[in-house]
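--- STAGE predict ---
source: upstream dedup step, 1 unique chain passed
mode: sequence only
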Amino acid sequence: MNEILLILGMMAVTFGVRYVPLLIVGRVTLPDEVIRALRFVPVAVLTAIVVPAMLMPQGNLELQLTNAYLVAGIVALVVSWRTKNLLLTIVVGMGFFLLWRAAFPVTPPSI
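--- STAGE serialize ---
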C-alpha cells in the first residue's frame, strides 16, 4: 500500500510542477524575446546531458584520443555543422564511435 501512495504522491507532484506553468503561460502573452530564448532550451538541455558523458565516460576527465566518446562526438559535431543533416550525423557519429572503440578497446577501471 505504501508503494501505491508513493507513486500517487510522485504523480501529483510531477503533474503539479508541469501543469501550473502551462496553465499560466496559456493565459499570458509572452514577449518575443522569451519565445526566441525558449527555442534554445532543447539544445541547452541536450548539451548539458551529452558533453559530460563525452568528456567523462568513466567518471573522470578523459581528453585522450583513446576516448571514443570524445572523438566520435567531435566527428559528429563537424558532420552536423557541415551537412545540417540529423540522420547523417547520427549514422556517421555512431559508426565512427564503433570503429574507434574497436581500434582502441576500453579497459575497465580496476577496483
